[in-house]
Amino acid sequence: MKILVTGATGMVGKALCQRLVDDGFAVRAAVRTIDAELATSDVAFVGDINELTDWQTALTGVDVVVHLAARVHLMRDTAENPLAEFRRINVQGALKLARSSYAVGVKRYIYVSSIKVNGEFTESGQALTELDVPNPQDAYGQSKYEAEVGLLQIAVETGMEVVIIRPPLVYGPGVKANFAALMRAVQRGWPLPLGAIHNQRSLVALDNLVDFITTCISHPNAANQTFLISDGQDLSTTELVRCMAKAAGVPARLLPVPVWALAWAGRLLGKVNGVQRLTSSLKIDSGKARNLLGWTPKITVQEGLLRAVTGNPQP
């Protein structure tokens, strides 16, 4: 079986290519440019991903497509029309790849979407499921949702199997953005005002996401299904910092600042959204993946954080 992986030079893409090669799959990496060493020597240059991308060469002989490439959520988006730009890459690009895949006989198309399709927060005691009405709150989440709708329609029209995976924040070796900044602060021993937050956040370790994607490549019950996926161990922000500190072998320096005070500081400093992400809950029920596919997380949260902190993909 030959697998085409888009976004192969990203954090998830590199790890997925390595896992698939280790498992004996023939892997082709679709890339815009080569900027990293990949586990596979079968590489296809596809250029920018949009409604005009020519996928013919990349798809030759491919049985399953795993589409990871996307325009990602940006804290400071400088595009004149962010939604239009997200749609061009995340919607039109994904649908063009799907139609091209069907045209050459691809059997299954796995689309890695985002929990942002469901929304940004959950109320205390509640968890998001695949049955919830989608509620994207920003242009990125909206584009991912529109791509999902289009892909499921293509599945109905063509019979090509589509699998949709909505992960929350993915952490592991090579993680970037806010998660990486928080890890650095913990490792440097900086006092953090995050010692009194009692929310619940679902995360997914890189190894667990890769393992789940690999399961979806061939499991018959995955066809035409949508899955919310997580580690199955939800953490408060306070607990997350303590776990990071333990993984780094340093003390957790936490100040018990009340959430209301953090919210006040966020408004004062223009960081309302950032504070909301730190203090609010986003809990996922990934029971469908476990019950329908018999999948269980490959590693624990603590193991995942150790790999993220050390940058080592192996324990």
Distance between the termini: 29 Å
Spatially, the strands of the biggest sheet line up as 3-2-1-4-5-6-9
**Main pleated-sheet profile:** 7 strands, parallel
Structural class based on helices, strands and sheet pairing: alpha/beta
Strand content: 5-15%
Number of helices: 11
Helix percent band:
40-55%
Quantity of strands, as a count: 9
| Unreliable segments of 5+ consecutive residues | none
Give the ordered list of helices and strands.
Answer: EHEEHEHEHEEHEHEHHHHH
Backbone CA Rg? 20 Å
Shape: globular
Average residue pLDDT? 92
How is this structure best described in words?
By secondary structure, the protein is an alpha/beta fold. The chain has helices at about 10-20, 55-60, 80-105, 140-160, 175-185, 205-220, 235-250, 260-270, 270-280, 285-295, 300-310, and strands spanning about 1-5, 25-30, 45, 65, 110, 160-165, 170, 205, 225-230. A seven-stranded parallel beta sheet has the order 3-2-1-4-5-6-9, sandwiched between helices. The chain has a two-stranded parallel ribbon with strand order 7-8. Strand 4 (about 65), helix 3 (about 80-105) and strand 5 (about 110) form a beta-alpha-beta unit. Helix 5 crosses helix 7. It is globular, with a radius of gyration of 20 Å. The two termini are about 30 Å apart.
Which helices and strands appear, and what pairs or packs with what?
Layout: E1 2-6, H1 11-22, E2 26-31, E3 43-45, H2 56-59, E4 64-67, H3 82-103, E5 108-112, H4 139-158, E6 161-166, E7 169-171, H5 177-187, E8 203-205, H6 206-218, E9 225-228, H7 237-248, H8 259-269, H9 272-279, H10 287-293, H11 301-310
Parallel strand pairs: 1-2, 1-4, 2-3, 4-5, 5-6, 6-9, 7-8
Helix pairs in contact: 1-6, 3-4, 5-7, 7-11, 8-9
